[in-house]
Amino acid sequence: MVSDKINRRLLTGDRPTGPLHLGHYFGSLKNRVKLQDEGYETFIIIADYQVITDRLDTSAIKENITNLMLDYLSVGLNSKKTTFFVQSMIPQLSELTQIFSMLVSTSRVGRNPTVKEEIKAMKLESNVSLGMFSYPVSQAADILLFLPGVVPVGEDQLPHIELTKEIARKFNTAYSEVFSIPEALLSATPRLMGLDGSQKMSKSRNNAIFLSDSTDEVRSKIKKAVTDSGSEIVYDKNNKPNVANLIDLYQLIAGKKVEEIVGLYAGKGYKEFKEGLGEEIVSFLKPIQEKRSKVTEKYALEVLRQGNKKALEVAQSTLRKVKVAMKMDYRL
Ligand code: TRP
User: Fold this and answer.
1) Which pLDDT tens digit goes with each residue over 15-68?
2) Does the beta carbon of 145 lie inside 6 Å of ligand 1?
């Protein structure tokens, strides 16, 4: 049985919707690299079908997949330890989703707070597709097909992991113990706020610094970052929330304590502080970008091809077990 020993297989993933930014780095990538280097057998799914839950435009997906691979490899995820693969290239995922859709009620699926928020944010209330409504069931297949022990995710994904565990238990009880019951692993870093100070960093809110931003882009974005009235560099979440937010970013980037940063800029103004922060970000991104410049697209796609191959083997093996358990492995 899977649960007898510690299951050191890890699965996580992303939607290929655009380049990765500092929020992704501190919220998940850094932790993935650490876990990979601690010896977790890592699987990363690029969830391309999940992209079209809230938009039908597919024109950028292929390019986004390539760029995602370049981002992954440039931060230190490594093809020897991590298997990267594309959701739509593993047909067993669709089959498993079909089976799982029978193990969960529509009312249960409708009670997912993350999906509700996404529907609201995209103003889809009057026209929610079945795929949008039920994508957490598909995500349960993304996870369970690979029999992982842990799933590192952000807080917004916890409802999906709960549903995943319920589906796994339901299948195991109805048929036989095929699935591991994976645990969510929350990364210790809170969500990074964007440069507008008001919301979390994200591409769609136009408040992000991308891992692939040039030095000039970084400098100009930081220059434009929202601050507060006054001119002193103080850490005061209530009265100077935007400056506090930038100090938080500084802290993460430079690995310095708040007091140290405030001390550095005592008697100085926002201009000097922002220049300092900008340069810290530039040097933080330097090794990542150096690595990126050495990785060719051809190599990145070859890594993905190999990953798909390996993922397909695991997928076939698990789906065979699923069908045997269901007595639907007809040999006609
Ligand atoms: N829903 C995740 C996100 O938007 C992406 C994702 C798809 C995922 N399948 C997954 C994450 C499986 C973890 C495990 O970020």
Assistant:
1) 999 999 999 999 999 999 999 999 999 999 999 999 999 999 999 999 999 999
2) no
Cβ of 164 less than 6 Å from ligand 1: no
Query: Which DSSP letter does residue 156 get?
Result: G
- What is the rounded (10 degree) CA torsion for 322, 328, 331, 332? -150
**Ligand 1 within 6 A of 47 CB?**
yes
Total count of residues recorded for the chain: 332
pLDDT in tens, 157-215: 999 999 999 999 999 999 999 999 999 999 877 678 899 887 889 888 899 999 999 99
pLDDT tens figures, 300-331: 999 999 999 999 999 999 999 999 999 999 99
Please list, in sequence order, all residues whose beta carbon lies within 8 angstroms of the beta carbon of residue 237, skipping any fewer than 6 positions away. Answer: 244
Ligand 1 pocket test target in 9, 10, 15 with most atoms within 8 Å of CB = 15
Q: How far apart are CA 187 and CA 154, in angstroms?
A: 7
* Cα angle for residues 292, 300, 309 (degrees, 5° grid): 150
pTM flag (> 0.90) = yes
Measured from the Cα of 153, ligand 1's closest atom is 13
Amino acid letter for position 212: S
Nearest Cα residue to atom 5 of ligand 1: 14
Tell whether ligand 1 has an atom less than 6 A from the beta carbon of residue 10.
no
| Tokens, residue 232 | 């002193």
